[in-house]
Write a structure and sequence with these properties.
Elements (H helix, E strand, L loop, with lengths): L2 H5 L4 E6 L5 H17 L2 E7 L6 H8 L10 E3 L1 H6 L1 H19 L3 E5 L11 H11 L4 E6 L5 H18 L3 E9 L4 H7 L7 E5 L8 H12 L2 H8 L9 H14 L3 E4 L5 H12 L4 E5 L2 H10 L9 E3 L4 H14 L7 H7 L3 H10 L5 E4 L5 H12 L9 E7 L4 E5 L9 H17 L5 E5 L10 H16 L4 E6 L1 H5 L1 H7 L11 E3 L3 H15 L2 E8 L5 E3 L6 H15 L1
Parallel strand pairs: 1-4, 1-5, 2-3, 2-4, 5-6, 6-7, 8-9, 8-11, 9-10, 11-18, 13-16, 14-15, 14-16
Antiparallel strand pairs: 12-13, 12-17
Helix pairs in contact: 2-3, 2-9, 5-6, 6-7, 11-23, 12-23, 16-17, 18-19
């Protein structure tokens, strides 16, 4: 999720959560924090905690990463109850900032506390943010008033919730044990797939609670066993929140300049303000500086002044731009008068800023149609050498992974050569965003199960892909279910190494692609980022006219990454 994390092999993160969140959880959190702090620079993060809570201060004192309480917390529990989706985004942002600030060797993430307000969904929320923060889980379950079998059933049910969210349990603490309970509990959990530790009850209201907690942890938890659990293999999920903030981290790592032609649109300047405040990209906003800043002030925006503003009637820019446009469109007989008229269009003017080298990429479409955004790019930026078309891919952010869907935006009925080119372009897009591409050429047939001209086209395209990109993992023709599901693939495409593991889905035509991405987006809750316009010499990306501010933020960030 964070470039820093990816560059630091020794970085360890773990989330400690409990279905009860009682004092037994606190013994675990304090013990793990102290164990990691003894080995290296360790920070603490509380995704959702009350400002009156005092245990967070105990944890911060036990840590050694130098983070303040403000830097170590995400949102308040009331916010988490009332707006779980918005809270998850804010938690990822706060955690990202904490890690970037401290650059620790380890982070201990401690879940929500017991509350007088019972929210049945709160444990799932804890599991969700563990996945968002790409962290494995230490699960704490209380044994008070439970038999060993009931404890095991509770652990198994809780583990399923955590795994369904996309994370993984790497160890279990059974808390609240009296002297008679550890042996029967250990017998019940013999051969359990992860380590299971038992801990006695500690009342944190006692004056000597911390020393009791330290003694309980040291006596019952083997440090080497704990370290091994935290270092066990973990395939970190990529949730929509992790992916979106990963985009920001990648964009910030090598800042580029992006032009926004639609400076009079509120969503555009809100997105711009967000990115400028965090120093993610440099921005050129087309429009009247005073008017845009005045509107920003009305909206409560604080960072718009960091942008560069470009008026369309600025002759110092317009005069050389007119000359360049006449040069580029000379074969079409463009005159200076025609060029000036063309450059009155926001998208055209913004595109020429990219051509002139003043910006590295462009994002438009919150007001303008896709055609208005793409047409200028095709006329003056043109396609990459060796590329014959532009296609549109969406990055589909599912609960625990990201896939590419293409072409969902541009080409109506591609022929076999064009479909192959779309597949290769989409694989390159996947690589640019950290995915190892496995391409599925979609049809109503799986490896010859159906016949017809549409199947023939897809199979021909697959052959072309294999010829042009022999190292690319590709399967086709293949039905969506066999491409998506290993279980279905085992029946329909037995033995094929790509089937069931596809993450780049190439649809046979625009109708299928556009319907599919919207159907998946709306029915599954997946976030659709894009379209990414593939094949252009310089990155130009289109927005849906229904784009949210977050959509615009994501698209600007991915455009900056393409420009890198």
């Amino acid at each position: 999720m964070l470039k820093y994390i990816g560059d630091t092999v020794s970085f360890t993160s773990v989330t400690i959560i409990s279905p009860e969140a009682a004092n037994g959880r606190n013994v675990v959190a304090l013990g793990v924090t102290k164990a990691l702090a003894a080995a290296g620079k360790t920070g603490v993060f509380r995704p959702a905690v009350c400002r009156k809570d005092t245990f967070t201060d105990v944890l911060i004192e036990a840590s050694n990463a130098g983070l303040s309480r403000e830097q170590s917390v995400g949102v308040c529990p009331k916010r988490a109850r009332n707006d779980k989706e918005g809270s998850r985004a804010d938690i990822v942002a706060a955690y990202t900032q904490a890690v970037e600030t401290a650059r620790p060797d380890a982070m201990v993430i401690v879940g929500t506390d017991r509350s007088a307000v019972n929210d049945p969904a709160m444990f799932s929320f804890n599991a969700d943010f563990a996945a968002d923060l790409q962290s494995p889980v230490l699960l704490a379950v209380c044994t008070i008033e439970r038999t060993p079998e009931q404890v095991k059933s509770t652990v198994e049910a809780s583990t399923k919730v955590i795994e369904d969210a996309g994370s993984k349990v790497v160890g279990v603490f059974i808390t609240g044990c009296d002297d008679t309970q550890p042996d029967p509990l250990k017998a019940c959990f013999v051969d359990y797939p992860v380590p299971v530790w038992t801990l006695p009850a500690v009342d944190f209201n006692d004056d000597d609670a911390i020393s009791k907690a330290d003694e309980a942890f040291a006596t019952n938890v083997d440090a080497a066993e704990l370290t091994a659990a935290l270092e066990s293999p973990f395939d970190a999920p990529t949730t929509p929140y992790a992916f979106q903030y990963g985009l920001l981290g990648k964009a910030k790592a090598d800042k580029k300049t992006i032009v926004l032609p639609e400076g009079n649109e509120d969503r555009i300047i809100k997105a711009a303000d967000y990115l400028l405040e965090r120093d993610i990209v440099d921005l050129i906003i087309v429009g009247d500086e005073n008017a845009i800043l005045a509107r920003g002030q009305e909206l409560g925006l604080k960072s718009l002044g960091k942008a560069k503003f470009q008026a369309k009637d600025d002759e110092t820019v317009l005069e050389p731009m007119v000359a360049k446009l006449c040069e580029l469109r000379a074969k079409k007989g463009m005159t200076e008068e025609q060029a000036r008229k063309q450059l009155a269009d926001d998208s055209y003017f913004g595109t020429m800023l990219v051509v002139m080298g003043m910006a590295d990429g462009l994002v438009s479409g919150s007001v303008n149609s896709t055609a208005n955004t793409v047409r200028p790019a095709l006329q003056v930026i043109k396609t990459k050498p060796g590329t014959s078309l532009v296609s549109g891919a969406f990055l589909m952010c599912f609960k625990d992974h990201v896939a590419v869907f293409a072409d969902c935006a541009i080409n109506l009925n591609p022929n076999a050569e064009q479909l192959a080119e779309i597949a290769i372009q989409s694989a390159e897009t996947a690589k640019a965003f950290g995915l190892e591409p496995k391409v599925g050429m979609l049809s109503y047939s799986t490896l010859g199960s159906g016949k017809g001209p549409d199947v023939d086209l897809v199979e021909e395209a697959t052959t072309i892909v294999k010829d042009k990109a022999p190292d690319l993992a590709v399967v086709g023709s293949i039905q969506f279910d066999a491409a998506w599901s290993p279980t279905v693939a085992a029946t329909k495409a037995k033995g094929d190494p790509v089937a069931g593991h596809v993450n780049v889905f190439v649809f046979p035509d625009l109708c299928a692609g556009n319907i599919a991405y919207k159907a998946v987006q709306r029915s599954s809750g997946a976030a659709a980022v894009g379209p990414v316009l593939q094949g252009l010499n310089r990155p130009v990306n289109d927005l849906s006219r229904g784009a949210t501010v977050q959509d615009i933020i994501n698209t600007i960030a991915l455009t900056a990454i393409e420009a890198q």
